Every structure is written in structure tokens, then in C-alpha cells.
Amino acid sequence: MEASTLRNTFIFSLLSIFSISSSTTTSHSHHHHPLDPLTPQEFTLVQTIITNSYHNSNPNNLTFQYVGLDEPNKPTLLSWLSTLKTTTPPPRRAFVITRLNKQTHEITVDLSTSSIISDHIYSGHGYPLFTLEEQTTASELPMTYPPFLESVKKRGLNLSDVVCSTYSVGWYGEEKSARVLRILCFYTEGTVNLYVRPVEGVTLVVDLDEMKITQYSDRFTVPMAKAGGTEYRAAKQKPPFGPKLKGVATVQPDGSGIEIAGHTIRWANWAFHLGFDVRAGPIISLASIYDLEKKTFRRVMYRGYISEMFVPYMEPTEEWYYKTFFDVGEFGFGLSAVSLEPMKDCPAHAVFMDGYYAGQDGKPVKISNVFCIFEQNAGNVLWRHTETGILGEVIREVRPEVSLVVRMVSTVGNYDYIIDWEFKPTGSIKVGVGLTGILEVKGVSYTHTDQIKEDGHGTLVADNTIGVYHDHFLTFHLDLDVDGETNSFVKHKLETRRVANNISPRKSYWTVVSETVKTELDARIQLGLKQEELVMVNPKKKTKLGNPIGYRLFPGSTVTSLLLKEDYPQIRAAFTNYNVWVTPYNKSEKWAGGVFVDQSRGDDTLAVWTLRNRKIENKDIVLWYTMGFHHVPCQEDFPIMSTLSGGFELRPTNFFERNPVLKTKAPKIGHWPNCTAKP
Ligand SMILES: *[C@@H]1O[C@H](CO)[C@@H](O)[C@H](O)[C@H]1NC(C)=O
Ligand SMILES: *[C@@H]1O[C@H](CO)[C@@H](O)[C@H](O)[C@H]1NC(C)=O
Ligand SMILES: *[C@@H]1O[C@H](CO)[C@@H](O)[C@H](O)[C@H]1NC(C)=O
Ligand SMILES: *[C@@H]1O[C@H](CO)[C@@H](O)[C@H](O)[C@H]1NC(C)=O
Ligand SMILES: [Cu+2]
């Protein structure tokens, strides 16, 4: 009885959050949640509409650099949700960036009326994301470029074993710059680990509008790094193998707890929407948690995604200085996503979701298994206590932890990033970032550290191979809606107090001094300097006991950029000057490094937006958190690097009246036929 009533309440309140249709209907609106990513049919429609609108142009000149959902304005979406979908859904729109005749167009397409709402030529600084196709074409140009063939020959290399790759060039104060990419080449003879065998000394520049090589330099040669010891394919390894790992399986005796309807996912007490964007990768929306006591879903996060990344290398010479990558806005974190391999990238019981993006010609391209979603029992303890203080009895209560993970892997050239959004029944949202893949290395003449007399800008990780120092910064857009849109950002400062008047043998203690941050500039925080806790609260709501309802940011990393503020890459990446920023919600402030990031000049970054110093108290606000890794490579990172993990957690803080998993029962234990649990 009780369970079924609860379930009905659960479903009703879910309806109000997601507007899930409980009956089948033919109305257009029910095919999509307004936040669903564009479907293959919609990509095709966008392509047709835009191509037709340029019927006088050479179709070969039109390229689609970005196509994605132009999501409804937040107030529009929320008011539609509040009507339980009885009103017309917000119009479905696509945002498109094209290049046509050396110009960048920003286009908004209305999908329901099949019409172009606006088409502006962008005249500001910076260029759009690169397409895979133009990168591939550009990277093949050296193969027929005589000076390059000469350089290959001079080095005694076989051309058939040379492959090239494309690199964004950044901006270093140039007045004007064409849309170009740098090209570096690698040697694959005897190995597939090309990144550790650079053809050092040679760089090329390709103009993407002309699609031809416009600069070439061959400044020096160093011995080619050996192929031996660079192999990572299992089939090519020779014994001894090890260490030996035995299989570990997960059994789900009750079946899966995951329910997926379109892009809406329900699991345990969580409900959220999962979208795929070619630029951001996974986008989590409308994350809400069911409150057993209030018998309703309560919203925690309106939208969360990786807004930008910054990966600067610390080698200032001609061949390397420009390497300061913005993987989201230049290369597309979703575009770089790879199909996940069942049983390896994700556990056996994972379910998968495909992603779609528009290719350079605007036609849909599928990335199968772009996300995996799985329940995770990592052997952790949700909570426990052993009580021996009561005479004659021992009380032992343990609850194993099970959580839900949404995973995507993005392989941006040499590096692989594993992104996990983990939802815990406690109300925590934990984001995990794993770095693995292959180092970006510099070819050198050295084979021992004794030979290195000057700053090598990295670590000698193998003969003739320096793993160059660099950073990885990931900036997350976290539009928290803690129990509603209206939130405030509070710093709980932990301050030391001296015991006054000798009232105690103790001389000191700490206490909490709370400060509600009023404006944007005061919300900029470089973590690690002060002992404080950062909480997003709903100033309109309190617990029964009177505490403000909140969610706390548990930062996992307090790393910030060490580049000088006036250095060009840092001007472009000024969003990494602080770890934490808070801004008022503004639909157009999505990309921390700006909309047009390739060769950007830093005029459209989070750092610039906040200079308006807008009020953020008691408003719909967005939290931005930058986590980072300073990467000093080591020999274990060669020839391939084991996963280095970091992350952060958003954790309820006086959001619930008490521990929300107090009454959660331990899940059933799975049994293999041959296995008996020992008590
Ligand atoms: C566009 O196409 C014309 C031929 O129709 C060609 O001459 C021109 O170079 C092209 N422009 C670009 C930017 O590709
Ligand atoms: C070039 O290829 C030939 C034939 O495959 C091989 O014998 C030779 O070692 C290669 N040269 C280099 C420098 O890798
Ligand atoms: C939203 O942000 C953009 C970019 O910072 C700005 O141009 C615009 O004025 C903002 N809109 C409002 C209503 O503040
Ligand atoms: C399970 O037990 C059967 C019969 O005793 C045996 O043949 C089989 O090898 C066992 N399997 C495993 C995985 O231990
Ligand atoms: Cu690294």
C-alpha cells in the first residue's frame, strides 16, 4: 500500500519535472523533450534549410562548423514545465555556425516552421570549431609538398610511415590572422604510438580557407626516437606479462535500476536529462532528487557541462610556443568523443546511448555508444557504525554504496579524457575526470638527464624524448538550482578565535562566519588560500530547524594557471584565473572562453563578463568551477599514461531534514552458482 502510494507520488512529481507523457500521443511535442539534442532528421532538416538559403553560392564553399540545439530560454522552459506540458512547448531551434566564402555565419533555424530566424555574419575576433574533415584534409597536404618531402628524405625516413596532425595556433598579438592550423608530423615505422616519435624541427602552416600550405620551416634535426618500447597493443607485447589480474563480475540480482525514456534517466531517487553536444559532450539538465519526506522531486541542477578546457604547454620555442589548446571550443569535446567499448570502457551491465553531430557537409554523423550509463558498486560504504558501548550487545549497521555513473570518453589527439557524472543516493553529484592516453613529447638529442644543461621544459621520459610540462584545466558550467532558481552564494569562512578572559584551558578554537556574496567580483575565488566552505543556498527556503537549504561545492583541485596574466594564452584563458566564479544566469554566457575560441583575443570570456560586477544575491545564478592538473610528466607516463583522476563533488548541505539514506536498505547480494558467501 504504502509503496504504491509512494510510487504514484513519485511518478506524478516526475511528470511535473520532465513532462513525461504517460499516454502515447501523436502530437509533435511529445517526441522530444525541449532539451533533447537534435535528431538525425533534424540535422538533415537544418542542412537542407541552410543549403537552400545559399542556393546562389558554390555548395563546396559552405561548411558546417557547429550545429546544435539552441535550447529554450530557461524561464520559458521552466514555465512550460510548470504547466505539466498542457501548453505549447517552446519552439525547437538549432544554432548553427557555418563558413561561407571566408566568412563566419551565426544562424538560428526554427525547426517547427523550417525557417531561418537569423543569419548574421560574425565580424568579431576568433574562429569557430574545426571540423574533422578540414583537419584531415589539412594533415594530408604535406605528403605532396616538395619541401616537406625533402625534409623527410634528409632525415632518412620513409614517407609511407609519416603521418601528420593538426594544431590550433592561438593568438599572440597579431593584428590580423587568417584561419590557419599548424601541422606537425610523426613517424609510425614499427609502432602505432606515433605521438612519441615526432619529426622534430619541421612545422607547416595550412590556410584552411585556401586549403594550402602557407608557411614551412625546417630548422633542425634530432635523432628519431626509437620504436622499441613504445608499443601499447596487447597483441604485440612479449612476456613477461603482469601483474596478473583476475576477473571480477557484478551481478544484478534485482535487475537494472535504470529507467531511460528518450534522454530522461531515472535511477533510485534521481531524475535527470542527458544530452549530447558536439562542443560540450555530455550535458546534464534538470537533475532532481526525490525527497521521501516532502514526497516530491526537488531540483538541484538546471544544467551542468564542461564549458571550456585549457591545455597550455610550457615550451616557448618556435616549434612549441603556440601549443595552448582549448579542446572544447577549438576541437569539440563531443566531436572528439569515441565509441565506448562494452565490457572494457564500461562494466558488463552498462547501457549505452548514441550521439549525433553534423559533419562538415551538415549531414548527421553517428557516434555509437557515446555514453554509457551504469550502476556502480565499487565496494564502498554508504554509511556504517559499530556500537559496542551497550552492555551485552554489539550493533553493527553497514550500508554498501551503489551509485549511477554516466560516462563519456573524449580523445583529443593524443590525450584521452574520461568524464564521469556520478549520482549518489545521498544527493551528491560527483564529477570525475580521468586523464590517460599519450604524452605530447618533444624530440631531443639527449638520452640521459646529465646531458641536459638548460631548462629542458619537461622530463626525459625515454631516449630522445621529453614529456613537456603542461596543464589541463577544465571549466564546468554548473547552473545549480538549489530547490528552485533563486539562489545565493555563501562563503562559510572558518576563522580562528582566541579564547577570551581565560575562561578555558584552551587558547583557541575556530568558528564559522558566513558571508553572502553580493556581486560577481566578490565571488571570484582562488581556492586553497583561505579556509572556507562554498555553499549555494536557496535564501527563500529553510529546513524546519531554520538552516538555509544548500548544496556545497567540494573542490577536488585548487590548481590555477601559473602563466602571467598578460601572457596571450592567459588573456584568452582568463577564465582560469580563478577556480570559482558566480554569474547571474544569462543564456548567451555558455562558453567560458567565448563562442569563437580559435585565435580568440579574450574579449568574450567569463573574466570579461564578470567585470560588469552584476548582483548575484537572491537571483538565478550559475557557479563556474575550474579544476586543473599541473602535469610534470614522469617515466611511468611513457609509452602510455595510466589514468590520473581528479574531480569534485556537489553535496547537499542542509538540503534534507536528515540523512536521506537513513532508511535505505542494503541491496540484495548476487550469487554466482559456485559461490557461497562466507559469513
Ligand atoms: C568559392 O567557390 C568559388 C568557385 O565557385 C571559388 O573560386 C572560390 O575560391 C571559393 N571560395 C572559397 C573561400 O573557398
Ligand atoms: C624504410 O622502409 C624499409 C622497407 O620497409 C625499411 O627496411 C627501412 O628500415 C625503413 N627506414 C626507416 C628509416 O625506417
Ligand atoms: C547576456 O550576456 C551577454 C554576453 O555577456 C551580454 O551581451 C548581454 O547583454 C547579457 N544580457 C543581459 C540581459 O544581461
Ligand atoms: C562451478 O562448478 C562446476 C561443478 O562443480 C565446475 O565444473 C566449474 O568449473 C565451476 N566453475 C567455476 C567458475 O568455478
Ligand atoms: Cu597531461
Automatic annotation (TrEMBL):
Keywords: Copper, Disulfide bond, Metal-binding, Oxidoreductase, Signal, TPQ. The active site is at residues 327, 415. It holds the Pfam family Cu_amine_oxidN3. Its cofactor is Cu cation. It comes from the Eukaryota. The keyword Disulfide bond applies. PANTHER family: AMINE OXIDASE [COPPER-CONTAINING] ALPHA 2, PEROXISOMAL-RELATED (PTHR10638:SF87), COPPER AMINE OXIDASE (PTHR10638). Homodimer. This is Amine oxidase. It comes from Camellia sinensis var. sinensis (China tea). The lineage of its organism: Eukaryota, Viridiplantae, Streptophyta, Embryophyta, Tracheophyta.
